[in-house]
């Protein structure tokens, strides 16, 4: 899953960015509102973590700009502005959730998972298609009830496919979801990860659609 972190405080940004990477998220970090809008105009994200007190463009302007473009990306506001009016204004401007600083990373991660589930139309915390079950919170994967251990990259790629079983994701789609800006991507990296997943999950679990990409089967 690819995250855009919009935070001008270097210490907070460093901690949040590294914590997300430790959880195998791909993270791009920008430090002002205008760069956030410019980035969102060219790159697709699974979720945006948006501070409000930003240089160049305030976070509320960024939020309104995102929704003015009809961009449906989930936006989780992270801010020290704690008045009721601030929270109401943020939610009414299009935020999906609101978390106050200081916060625990465990809560931020849980709220991220929740807004992404809602976007995908998934009510429960576990992603499943009847054969594979994937729990983003515990990072556990089951195949027909049997636990399967995956690396961080393998888990990230499988989760990208499991968010929408039956949807075909191309190589570039998958690269976008598992690699951030500063991470080197080898030309056959996606194929290598899929090969490793098939060895663990079975050759038929991830299907190749010739000339288009890969998918997991829809729910049974």
Mind sketching the topology for me?
Blueprint: E1 2-6, H1 10-22, E2 26-30, H2 33-40, E3 47-50, H3 59-68, E4 75-79, H4 84-92, E5 97-100, H5 105-119, E6 127-128, E7 132-135, E8 140-143, E9 146-148, H6 152-162, H7 171-178, H8 189-201, E10 206-209, E11 213-216
Helix pairs in contact: 2-3, 6-8
What does this structure look like?
This protein is an alpha/beta fold and 220 residues long. 40% of the residues lie in helices and 20% in strands. The strands form 3 sheets. A 5-stranded parallel sheet has the order 2-1-3-4-5, with helices on both faces. Strand 7 and strand 8 (140-143) form a beta hairpin. Helix 2 packs parallel to helix 3 and helix 6 crosses helix 8 (189-201). The chain is globular.
Give the CA-CA distance, first to last residue: 24 Å
State the secondary-structure class. Answer: alpha/beta
Pick out the low-confidence regions.
none
Mean pLDDT: 88
Strand segment tally:
11
Element-level helix/strand string: EHEHEHEHEHEEEEHHHEE
Principal-axes geometry comes out as globular
**Radius of gyration, Cα only, in angstroms?**
18 Å
Largest beta sheet: strand ordering: 2-1-3-4-5
Summarize the main sheet. Answer: 5 strands, parallel
Helix content: 25-40%
Task: Work out the strand percent.
Answer: 15-25%
Query: Counting H and I runs of at least 4 residues, what is the number of helices?
Result: 8
């Amino acid at each position: 899953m690819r995250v855009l972190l919009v935070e001008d405080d270097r210490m907070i940004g460093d901690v949040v960015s590294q914590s997300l990477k430790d959880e195998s998220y791909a993270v791009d970090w920008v430090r002002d509102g205008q760069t956030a809008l410019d980035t969102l105009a060219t790159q697709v994200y699974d979720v945006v973590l948006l501070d409000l007190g930003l240089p160049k463009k305030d976070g509320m302007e960024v939020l309104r700009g995102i929704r003015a473009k009809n961009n449906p990306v989930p936006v989780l506001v992270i801010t020290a502005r704690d008045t009721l009016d601030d929270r109401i204004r943020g939610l009414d401007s299009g935020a999906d959730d609101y978390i106050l600083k200081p916060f625990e990373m465990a809560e931020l991660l849980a709220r991220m998972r929740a807004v992404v589930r809602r976007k995908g139309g998934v009510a429960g915390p576990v992603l499943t298609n009847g054969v594979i079950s994937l729990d983003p919170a515990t990072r556990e994967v089951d195949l027909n009830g049997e636990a399967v251990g995956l690396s961080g990259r393998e888990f990230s790629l499988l989760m990208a496919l499991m968010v929408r079983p039956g949807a075909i994701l191309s190589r570039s789609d998958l690269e976008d979801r598992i690699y951030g800006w500063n991470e080197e991507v080898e030309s056959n990296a996606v194929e290598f990860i899929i090969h490793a997943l098939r060895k663990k999950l079975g050759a038929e679990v991830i299907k190749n659609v010739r000339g288009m990409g890969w998918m997991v089967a829809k729910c049974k």
